[in-house]
Amino acid sequence: MRHALLGSHLTAALLAAATPAFAAPSPSDPLGSVMWEALREQYFADAPVVFDNAVKVTAPASAEDTRAVPLSVDATALGQVVEMLAIADLNPFPLILRYHPGTAAPYIATRIKIQQATAVRGAARTADGVWHVSGVLVDAAGGGCSAPPVSYAQKDWADHVGKVQARLWPADSDGVARLRLRIRHPNDTGLVDGIPAFFVETLTVQAQTPGGPAELARIDSLEPVSENPVYSLDVRPPPDAKALVLRGRDNQGGEIDAIIPMPPPGARPAMTLRPTDPMRSVGQ
Amino acid sequence: MTMKLLRRLALAAALTAGLATAAQAAGPLTYDLKPTRIAPDTYVFEGSTKHFTRANGGNILNSGFIVTSDGVIVIQTGPSRRYGEEMRAAIRKVTDKPIRKVFISNLHPDYWLGSQAFADVPVAALPGTIAGIQEEGNGIADNMYRLVGDWMRGTEVTVPTEPVYGSTVKFGDHRLRLIPLAGHTAADLMILDETTGVLFAGGVVFCNRTPTTPHASIADWLKELDAVDALDIRLLVPNHGNIRPDKACVAQTRDWLTWLDGTLRHAMDSGMDMAEALELPIPERFAVLDVLREEYRRSVAHLWPKIEQESLPKVN
Fold it and tell me: A279 and B284: CB-CB below 8 Å?
């Protein structure tokens, strides 16, 4: 991390000195990542980009397990969002996922691999085409992307690829229902010697309704998502939904197909974390 | 084109600056270990209750030694070769009796990375600890180099040489009961000196320091605490935290583990995500535990994925 931070200061200094020669392409990165300019060009091209704390990115300041770092991107404060990205700047594959929230609330949480200490970002594109970006720094021992998956230690791992665990909580008063998905899959990056890339690529959540299937949300998932990928989404199932359907595919054509039942009667909507009451919480 | 060149220049400058910083860090480092006599023939080197840092060099443990008429028994060797060497020199100032044996309570780094300084004597541990160090020792050592830096210089993985089992062994005028347990890690060795009533509890009990869970099974750990409660002891030496003449910290460790496990299970069942669980409120009564929020977050990383896997319904 020290290298990255020093690099950023120097980059900032050099760019500042050179500024008259360039039209400022975007505001300077609050996280001071050496990769930001390159990533901005790669993922946002000519689209307007603003750093905006309305996008709330949650990840631990220090990664305890570089193969499974919790990450959530919450852009609900922006209202309507068309597309979301999660990026880990210094990963061999920086793009973690693209989320198309559709009718869902613009919130997604997952667990990711990181290869070294890095800036981790969330970006949300609003209907006016502007990307709203924010992020946090995650310190790490490293190696998460090039560590072999644990899956292969189990002889019967291939029998379980594509098995889904899932739970849908009832909708809250705004019609938003928490959905959690866990998919058995090695989600291999291809960076381990002799093991080709093998990861979940697309996931679509639909509602089964009397009028046919209705798409609720779609995830384009990539290499940095952890082995046995886990996602939390906040979907809006239509009132006449009989069940949700998860359909997906990995990069080798393997299919994922599961029916997620509606919550049982009497179940309660998901709990959201209220702003911490300092009288009740210690150790912040 | 110019932009790319600038970026390359910046990277090169950053790398050079990084190397210079690393070189400056070298200097005389010492743990300044001073033994405290806690019972007849029994001494402890009391460490900090913080996490591993470049300031404390990983000295976050209470290592100890017992001077028996048949030689010195050493309990835990610390986080680095330097610690082990300084420990041995400090023991030498107390007694000129030879080191008879070293006991290692579990595979966590601060218990055994100093064993290089005791390579000429038997280093004893439970078979599960030996297997764990063989499997994970290099990774554990690498991470310590990252966390505390130059304090680790010259430290190499030294695997314990002698497997021990539940038994009572006599060293001169001291009878030591070796108590094998599992829960904090897959193999936890407690050592009760029946002669003095001092229990070296290893990682089974934490005292005013937040318990760590990288290899823990909470259900088994709670059973370990019951086992400690059943023992007749005069002084309890936890590897981390305060030494006490009572079992208050057995209750404190149980309270924390019960709260932690129950809170994470409830949060999972309530639909909360792991990232949100990192920020859950911690009750006021735990404010006495050092490195509280930091260790809590580490525990979320250790425990949450397993709870999730157990509790989410299978749908295909």
Answer: yes
